[in-house]
Amino acid sequence: MERAQAVELRTLRQEFPVLQRETSPGVRLVYLDSAATSQKPRRVIEAMSQFYEQHNANIHRGVHRLAEEATAAFEAARQLVAEFIGAASAREIVFTRNTTESINLVAASWGRANLQAGDLVLLTEMEHHSNLVPWQMLAAERGLRLEFVPLSADLRLDQEAYARLLEQQPKLIAFTHMSNVLGTINPVSEMTRQAHAAGALVLVDAAQSVPHLPVNVTDLGVDFLAFSAHKMCGPTGIGVLYGRRELLEAMPPFLGGGEMIKRVHLRDFKANEVPHKFEAGTPAIAEAIGLGEAVGFLSEVGMSAVEQHGQRLIALAMERLEEVPGVTVHGPAAEHKGPVAAFTFQGAHPHDIAQVLDSRGIAVRAGHHCAMPLHEKLGLPATTRASFYLYNTEQEIDQLIEGLYQVKEIFG
Amino acid sequence: MDDLYREQIIDRFKNPKMRGVLDPHDYSYEDDNPLCGDRIRVDVRVDGQGIITEAAYSGEGCAISQASADLLTESVVGKSLDQVKSLSKEDLLELLGIQLGPVRLKCALLSLKVLKAGVYGLEHLEQELAEV
C-alpha cells in the first residue's frame, strides 16, 4: 500500500512541469508555498492553451461554431465545479476573480440588501484580510457591529465564546474553514448548525480547504462558500462563490454591465438569471476551463487521498520542526490542522530564514500572510510558513529541516 | 546567499557597534515596516556646526535591516546634516556591500528612511521612497 502510494506520487509530480526546474544550477526547486498558490499540472496548462488555439470566442449569444464551443466548455466547467463541491445545481456556482471577490460580492450584494445599522456580523480572530476588510468597509458604510470569535488556548476557535456570541443574534457569521497561518480546520458543519439555530446565515472562506479536503456544501449546510482556482491546481484570475439558490435569486446584482442583464433600456434594466446576474462583462473563459480541468485532475487523484497525504506531511513536518532547537510551530496539534506550518525560529527573522532557504531552492513564505490581526494576537510581527500539497514529499521535509540547521549555523 | 549574509552583515547583526538610545538627543525618529515587523529608531546628537557627534539605533527585525542600521549610524558620525541629506540608496548599498532584491531592499533602506526623516522631516522622503 505504502509503496503503491509512493509510486503514484512520483508519477504525479511529473505532471507539474515547474517542479522539474532548478532555482540555480544544481539546485532543484522545493516548493513549500502552496498555501499562497499551488503549482499547475500540465493538463491544466494544456487545456487553457488548447482553448486559445482551437476554440477561442466570447461566450453566450454567439451563433457561430466557436462561440458555441466556448460557451459549452465554460458552462461544462461550471457543472464540474458544482459536482466537485456537492452543490445542488450549477446555477449555485458564480464565477468571480478569486475568494476575495466572492466575499466582496456577498458583502456588497447580500450585505447591502439585508443589513442595517446596529446589525451584528460575526467574524473570527483567525481570518485572512479578505474576510475582514470587506466587512469592515460595509460596517463603516452601514453602521454594523462586528464581533470576533476568539482563539482558544490551543489555537482553534473558542466554541464556548462562539455559542455566547450567537446569543447576540448576528445576521451573518463569516469564517475560515482552514486558517492559512495556523492551519486550524474549523468544525464548519457544527458551527453552521448552531448559527442557523440562532437565525444567522453562514459564509465560509474555503480558499484553503477546498484544495485540501473533500468539501460538500450540501453536507456542510453552509449558505455561501468562497474559494479560488489558483490554490487548487487551477489558474489565477478565477474564483468561485457558491450560494444557496434562493439566496442568490433574492440578491441584487453586484457589478453592472453586459451578461448580467436580461434586457436593458436607456434608463433601466432587468437582471439576468442566476448565476449570470453576478457575472458582468466577459468572464475569464480560458481560466474557467482551466479550473474545470483542475477539478477533473483532483477528482481523479481523489480528495480523500489528497487529504490523507496532507495529514501525513503535516504530522511529519510538525514532528521534525519541533525537533530543531529554537523552532516554535504556531498552530493546533497536527490532527486539527491542514498542511500548513507557520513557525518562528529564535534568533532568526522570518525574512532571513526564507532567504537562507531560498538559496537551497526551498520556497517558503515570510511575513504576516495577510493575517495581521492574527499575528498581533499571537504577539508576532511575522512568521515563516511552509505549506504542503499533493506533490510534496517527505524528502522535501528533510530538505527543509537541513535548511533550518543551516539557518541555525548562521544566526545561532 | 553567501553574498547576502557576508560575514560583515552577520557580524554586525550579532555584535552591533551602534546599538542603543541617546537621551537627550537632537534628532530622533522611529518607523517600521508593517509587512515584516522591522522596526528602527535612530537618535543623533549634533554640535553647533551641524556636525553629527553621536548616533545610535534601536529596534528589531531581520539581519539586513539591523546590520544596515548599524553600518549607517556608524558612517554618519562626523558628517554634517547636509551630507546626511544627500545620502542615497546607492551609498547605503555600498556600505552593505551586497545586492538586494526589491523586498529585501526595503529592509535595508528602513534605517536610511528613519535617519533622514529624523533630520529633515517626512515630506522630502515621500519623493525618495517613490523612487525605491
Topology:
The complex is a heterodimer of chains A (412) and B (132).
Chain A: H1 2-14, E1 22-24, E2 27-28, E3 30-31, H2 42-55, H3 65-84, E4 93-96, H4 99-114, E5 120-124, H5 133-142, E6 145-149, H6 159-166, E7 172-176, H7 188-197, E8 201-205, H8 217-220, E9 224-228, E10 239-243, H9 245-250, E11 261-264, E12 269-271, H10 285-301, H11 303-323, E13 327-330, E14 340-345, H12 350-358, E15 362-363, E16 365-367, H13 372-378, E17 383-387, H14 394-411
Parallel strand pairs in A: 3-15, 5-6, 5-7, 7-8, 8-9
Antiparallel strand pairs in A: 1-2, 4-10, 9-10, 11-12, 13-14, 14-17, 16-17
Chain B: H1 7-14, E1 27-33, E2 38-46, E3 52-60, H2 63-76, H3 81-85, H4 89-96, H5 102-120, H6 123-131
Antiparallel strand pairs in B: 1-2, 2-3
Helix pairs in contact in B: 1-2, 2-5, 5-6
Share of helix of chain A, binned: 40-55%
Oligomer: heterodimer
Number of helices of chain B: 6
Tell me how many strands of chain B there are.
3
Strand order of the largest sheet of chain A: 4-10-9-8-7-5-6
Q: What is the N-to-C order of secondary-structure elements of chain B (H for helix, E for strand)?
A: HEEEHHHHH
CATH architecture group name of chain B: Alpha-Beta Complex
The fold-level CATH name of the largest domain in chain A is: Aspartate Aminotransferase, domain 2
Q: What is the helix fraction of residues of chain B, given as a range?
A: 40-55%
Query: What is the number of domains of chain B?
Result: 1
Gyration radius of chain A (Cα, Å) is 22 Å
Low-confidence parts of chain B lasting 5 or more residues at pLDDT below 50? none
Number of DSSP-assigned strands of chain A: 17
Taking the sheet with the most strands of chain B, its summary is: 3 strands, antiparallel
Q: What top-tier CATH class of the largest domain in chain A fits best? A: Alpha Beta
Largest sheet of chain A: 7 strands, mixed
The CATH class label of chain B is: Alpha Beta
Provide the β-strand percentage band of chain A.
15-25%
